[in-house]
Amino acid sequence: MSVTAIKKSENVAMQLVTDKIKSRLAVESHAKAVGDGIAIAPSVKPAKKANGIFTITFSYEQNLHRTQVQSTQSGYGTPVYKVALSSSLNPESNICWLQRNTDGWKVLLGTNMDAKLIDALTAAIEQQA
Question: Using the 8-state DSSP alphabet, how is residue 126 labeled?
């Protein structure tokens, strides 16, 4: 999201910061309320960038996580999603590739991924797509 600041008063900049903090607190409180379940933030939806990279926020193992996803077109017409993973989420792989098929989601690349992690990632991607 691109914001152009015009120096009129200090209140305008403070309002932007306040709104960002409020939206983050809303996401965190929603994730805590859900607990072990899958929590995504439907109200906080960042715009997709031109190169297909966007941010997803999801809850996994009672922690709120935010990561980057790149959407690429495959030869079959369905997009493939490249997800960056931190080592706390999956110590064996830093990147996974996911693709939605008629049967559901398929992990194209990524080793020993927990089913709950895959569910959390795919639910957050579906919310953004």
Answer: H
